[in-house]
Amino acid sequence: MRKLTTVFMLCTALLGAAPLAQAERLKDLASIAGVRENQLSGYGIVVGLDGTGDQTSQTPFTVQSIQAMLQQKGINLPPGTQLQLKNVAAVMVTTSLPAFAQPGQTIDITVSSIGNAKSLRGGTLLMTPLHGADGQVYAMGQGNVLVGGVGAQAGGAQVQVNHLSVGKISNGATVERAVASNLGADNQIRLELKQTDFSTAAKVVEAINDQFGAGIATALDGRVIRVRTPSSSDQRVAFIGQLESIDVSRSRDAAKVIMNARTGSVVMNQAVMLENCAISHGNLTVTVGADLEVSQPNPGSRGQTAVVQKNSVDIKKDPGRVLMVKGGASLAEVVKAMNSIGTTPQDLLAILQALKAAGSLRAELEII
Predict the structure, then answer these.
(1) Cα–Cα distance between 5 and 27 in angstroms, integer?
(2) Do residue 151 and residue 280 come from a single domain?
(3) How many Cβ atoms are within 10 Å of 363's Cβ, its own excluded?
(4) How buried is residue 167: exposed, middle or buried, by Cβ count under 10 Å (0-12/13-18/19+)?
(5) Is 69 exposed, middle or buried (0-12, 13-18, 19+ CB in 10 A)?
(6) Residues 103 and 145 in one domain
(7) Are residues 202 and 275 in the same domain?
């Protein structure tokens, strides 16, 4: 827990030193509607295994698949034939079809056993149709399965560092059908922010209009922005390339605190200040208050006397030990002080939840 606490304090220091707004590329903040991958999957058969295939007595679907395949090849088995297959495994083949992929292009595929095969190492995937969500075939997969990390050396000993029932085939599928795209329909595209934020959407519209002219971009809501594009495809591609490279000053995110209830690690996206409160939990007492200090100007100066409010954190674990933290009463200091006196993750979790419930913690609290 101590190591994790150190990482927490370092992240907080770095975040505190960062500027309030940082310029980011529009490509990192938003995506273009319709430009996306499409998941494909298919049922296939891997052959050529070295006795590590499915146990056919427990996986009848493997036998049925082999029989159906042999019938398609014109081979009819005698009635009552019991196949004993040790070198065959039933698998699911998965991949993602990239945006704008065209017939003839190749993509990588992942092969995963769905039976009780011990290993797919050395096997060959037979021709497998890969279907999309609409049931259409978009690619065909076939090739030698590579199971990486098998028998790797670690400290002079043989160590298995991968699942033997999962393998990959590089360029193992050929695209057979392209997904229709309506990019640039009606001479416009729609930008979709990765996170809904009205301030960021307004800044994106302002940055685009400053770059290309007034009226080019219009915010539809806190997430979607409509952008007018050139009519020809080559000009549209060049326009989108310039659009993605625009720097936008993203608005500051809402304060958020994430705590791991098992390890006690705490991560914040910015400095989180606490309001006045007092909490008693078991043998722990946490008091967050305010001290008033008088700031007196130097003799002869024209300054005025001012009253300065400074927050303080008072943490007690037992009657004989009191730990005071003066200065800005931030959540970082509260966590650091509680860890210094050996507070358990469960106590820290309970105190953070109580701070949130009492309204002293002005941030979203997420427990993982």
Answers:
(1) 34
(2) no
(3) 20
(4) buried
(5) middle
(6) yes
(7) no
- What's at 360, amino acid-wise? S
pLDDT for the residue 35: 92
Q: Which residue has the tokens 């130097």?
A: 298
Residue 125 forms part of a structural domain: yes
CB proximity list for 366: less than 8 A, separation 6 or greater:
256, 257, 258, 259
The predicted pLDDT at position 12 comes to 42
Q: Which residues of the chain have pLDDT under 50?
A: 1-20, 292, 294, 305-309, 319-328
Strands 266-268 and 256-259: antiparallel
Question: Is residue 158 located within the same domain as residue 56?
Answer: yes
144 and 70 housed in the same domain:
yes
Residue 18 lies in a domain: no
Count other Cβ atoms within 10 Å, centred on residue 294: 8
User: Which residue range forms the structural domain that includes residue 195?
Assistant: 182-249
Question: What is the structure's pLDDT at 193?
Answer: 94
pTM: 0.70
Token code pair at residue 287: 């008091």
